[in-house]
Amino acid sequence: MAQQTALPPAEQPTAPAPSRTSATDVAGLGRGRAAAFVAPAMLLVAVFLVFPALWTLYIGVTNYRLTGVQARTPEIVGVDNYVDALGDPTFHNALFLTLVFVLFSAVLGQNLLGFALARSLATLRPVMRRVVESLVLLAWIIPSSIVAFLWLALLDRDAGTLNALLQTPGLAWLIDYPLVSIIVFNIWRGTAFSMLLYSAALASVPPSQLETARLVGASRWQTLRDVVFPHIRGHVLTNTLLISLWTFNDFTPFLITAGGPNDRTEVLPVYIYNTAISGGQMGYGAAVSLIMLVINLIIALFYIRLLRERR
Amino acid sequence: MASIQLDGLTKVYPGDVRAVDALDLSIVDGEFFALLGPSGCGKTTLLRTIAGLEEATSGTVRIGDRDVTQLPPGKRELAMVFQDYALFPHMTVADNISYPLKIKGLAKPERLTKAVEAGEELSLGGLMERRPGELSGGQQQRVALARAIAVHPQVFLFDEPLSNLDARLRLEARTFLKRLQRELGVTTVFVTHDQAEALAMADRMAVMDAGKIRQVGTAREVFQRPASTFVANFIGSTPMNLLPGVVQGDGVDVSGQRIPMPADSREHVADGQDVVVGVRPEYLTLSQSAADGALHGVVAIIENLGTSALVTLEADGFTVAATVPDGEEPPIGADAWVSAAEGRTLVYRASDGELVDAPVAAAIA
Amino acid sequence: MSIVTPREMVGRIGFYVLVGLVTAFFALPMLWLVATPFDDQPGLALSVPDPTLGNFSELLDNRLALPSLLNSILLAAGTALLVVVFAATAAYALSRVRIPGRDIMLYLLLLLSSIVTGTAAMVPIFLLMFELGLIDSRVGVVLVLSGGLLPAAIFILKDFMDSVPKSYEESARVFGASSFQILRDVVVPVIRPGLATIAVWTIVNVWGNFLVPFILLRDADKQPAAVLMRTFYTEGGSPNLALISTFSLLFSIPVIAMYLFVNRRYGFRFYGGIKS
């Protein structure tokens, strides 16, 4: 205190109005009750989210199975599961398919179509705009079990609407082009998010800057590159990371092809289901899950860093 | 009704930020008292500590004859009007006003009667069924006041009561608040960063800076005799002239010009001591002919203030401003002399900025 | 604007053709959902229906169809209740009381919930429920879903709480209201739109969730609509199209209605990853 008073008034550090922002407890709740308020949520999250994630580490080094001797007394097998997975061509296949699936359906497909929709919607008449927007959103919110069946009907070999339209009777899309089919399906399914995000992003570009570009006679492409894109670069990154993460974890392809034919659409989520839950190889499935969690972690860390930078 | 007595009140935030620093203050029963200071000076924290919204780190708060330092806000028998009024958006005006009475456990018919009474008093008669979102800023403020009045508290606390109103409404509300306070006679403390507001409304005020009180007094005392250069700078719509100089005999040398020094200041300073001479522009008389003890300069800028004009003179090494009546402005570039009215010259120590004849302790009365 | 060069004309026509094609792309799969339930001869092919409501009797004929919708309601309502109540209390405390490490904790939570997805964690979650004896338990499904949705819900609600002026509660405190009274009379009414958003968001998420009930519920009597639907066309050779089409329509209406409700009431407010 003595030091403080010795300072001349002008040089004393002015408290940055701490009253409003850093009040420790506005509601008079008290630390104890506050903890009690947070506890139930934390308990649920701890048991059903944190614990499973950590447990994956343990299960992955055992030969845990659902039935048989290993079910009762699973043994530690060390890194065998990981060695097996990394050397297993079916795992390589699943990883490769997932990569192609995410790259083409999310990073390219949803991203570009979502951006194109967001940009062209702004120029459409309100009625048209609402129709297109609603259709895209419907594809996003209808439960996956239903949309999966809608696509099964659309792509059906004998009576499917697509074959009728293209006059290609008897073409079995899901057998001849299974991966392309689920890629197109996922673009249809998930573009709504990109469209919404880019619509919001485009609306945040200051009109005065667009008008300046018009005044100096910039072409549409130049405006996009020099004015619009710098503004929404953060959104592009956010969007790409999020839709990649979701597509990477999407189980819906299972509902259409169940991984077939001949594992040609067995993306990682389906692969885990088929080996662990269906096939009962829990230890091996956990090892693959951990690889998946690590990939998720990497994507999410990028995303969180982005969020924090923007705050 | 009650007085408020603060003794050694201190509020320290984590990180050793002293928002309120060992503060003593007594506010008389029925007084309209202003806490004035720049933003971040601790005035709002002080008000919130009196309210009990902030816990005092040390020291005591007494309201009337009760020590309320340890009491929760609800038990202190005070009412507070927040800067944003804090009207509950989901309640009607009537429900907003009667909500505190509901907390006090009054039956519904009784609290509605009281709410209507308080509403009438603030001419909210036709608005009782509206939601706050449907009211103008001035009406919202009156609802907040009615809500405070309805509980008949010992003390009113207002946090920047006028800052959310536009300029014209602010003048009206100023008069209105002052009349209301006089009629109710309830001890009232309000926080403001606007010196004109404090001068106009408060019976007495405390000027604060960095968690400490720099001066306590009536509007006149603070305006006429600022206890330090900080207060002098802060109070007054035109800033006080503060001219650095050196004591020489019975006068002060300001950049080679000499002005007389009040006799009662002279005994507190030594010959050759660095001082700051303060004179308000309102207390300076301007003439276009040389006079004894007047400061000479060249007219540089004239700002019209309505009924008067502020004339800034440039001299060698300093500038000095004086107000002149409407229509008596000298031409730009003319030579002019300013001299202070009798007893209006203040002398501050250059070292700590305090008045030379007033020790620090005496300022906090 | 009034003078259009041929080049611009071609460009504009091309633009509308493209928009038309994209619209068709999104509409095409959904036409089946609208037409077939009312078709007296439901098939996989699209056809203009000869309107009938006869297909809806299939819903009653299937012993499991309507109960599965009830199961969906139970799961959605149960999860929404847990998520709204727990997220609201947690968000309130986190927004209003300075708990050490609060910000780090929130980010960690968000990080966790985005990486520990149902897909990536299906193995440990299945085993955990297996060990807890919660396989074939609807409560188990509700708990797992709540655990997954809570972090994002807390994050969104805390943002919402932060935007509510603290002076509301402080004002009530000065009047002497207890923390329970403040919560009931001030906080809950003020954040009601936020609570409604979270409730709808949770319900939509649970309603469409396939994976979690699929791996945790084996008993067809307990399965929600999303899972049971598969049995309509994987068992017994040819799919029962009358049942599938009418059931799909019935099953999709609630989420569409809720979307319309939220859209009209609050506008489609955009909360980062609102759907996961």
List its traits.
heterotrimer; B: 365 residues; alpha+beta; Rossmann fold; OB fold (Dihydrolipoamide Acetyltransferase, E2P); 2 domains; six-stranded mixed β-sheet; five-stranded antiparallel β-sheet; 10 helices; 20 strands; 25% helix; disordered C terminus; C: 276 residues; mainly alpha; MetI-like fold; 13 helices; 0% strand
Quick structural gist:
The complex is a heterotrimer of chains A (311), B (365) and C (276). With 311 residues, chain A is mainly α.
Tally the structural domains of chain B.
2
CATH class of chain C: Mainly Alpha
With strands numbered from the N-terminus, the spatial order across the biggest sheet of chain B is 6-7-8-3-9-10
Question: Beta-strand level of the residues of chain B, as a percent range?
Answer: 25-35%
Describe this structure in words.
The complex is a heterotrimer of chains A (311), B (365) and C (276). Chain A is mainly alpha-helical and 311 residues long. Chain A has 2 domains: 55-87 and 281-311, no CATH class; 91-278, Orthogonal Bundle (MetI-like fold). In chain A, 74% of the residues lie in helices and 0% in strands. Chain A has helices spanning 2-6, 18-21, 30-59, 69-72, 80-87, 89-121, 126-141, 144-154, 161-166, 173-176, 178-203, 207-215, 220-248, 253-257, 268-278, 282-310. Chain A starts with a helix and ends with a helix. By secondary structure, chain B is an alpha+beta fold. In chain B, strands 6-7-8-3-9-10 form a 6-stranded mixed sheet, with helices on both faces. In chain B, strands 13-12-11-14-20 form a 5-stranded antiparallel sheet. In chain B, helix 2 packs across helix 3 (108-121), helix 2 packs parallel to helix 4 (137-150) and helix 3 (108-121) crosses helix 4. Chain B is elongated and about 75 Å long. Chain C is an all-alpha fold and 276 residues long. Chain C has a single domain (59-266), classed as Orthogonal Bundle (MetI-like fold).
List the topology elements.
The complex is a heterotrimer of chains A (311), B (365) and C (276).
Chain A: H1 2-6, H2 18-21, H3 30-59, H4 69-72, H5 80-87, H6 89-121, H7 126-141, H8 144-154, H9 161-166, H10 173-176, H11 178-203, H12 207-215, H13 220-248, H14 253-257, H15 268-278, H16 282-310
Helix pairs in contact in A: 3-16, 5-16, 6-11, 6-13, 7-11, 11-13, 13-16, 15-16
Chain B: E1 4-13, E2 17-27, E3 32-36, H1 43-51, E4 58-63, E5 66-67, E6 78-81, H2 93-103, H3 108-121, H4 137-150, E7 155-159, H5 167-184, E8 187-192, H6 195-201, E9 204-209, E10 212-218, H7 219-224, H8 229-234, E11 241-248, E12 251-254, E13 257-260, H9 263-266, E14 274-279, E15 284-287, E16 295-304, E17 308-315, E18 318-325, E19 335-340, E20 346-349, H10 360-363
Parallel strand pairs in B: 3-8, 3-9, 6-7, 7-8
Antiparallel strand pairs in B: 1-2, 1-4, 4-5, 9-10, 11-12, 11-14, 12-13, 14-20, 15-19, 16-17, 16-19, 17-18
Chain C: H1 6-35, H2 57-61, H3 65-96, H4 102-115, H5 122-132, H6 138-162, H7 167-174, H8 179-190, H9 192-208, H10 211-216, H11 225-228, H12 231-234, H13 241-266
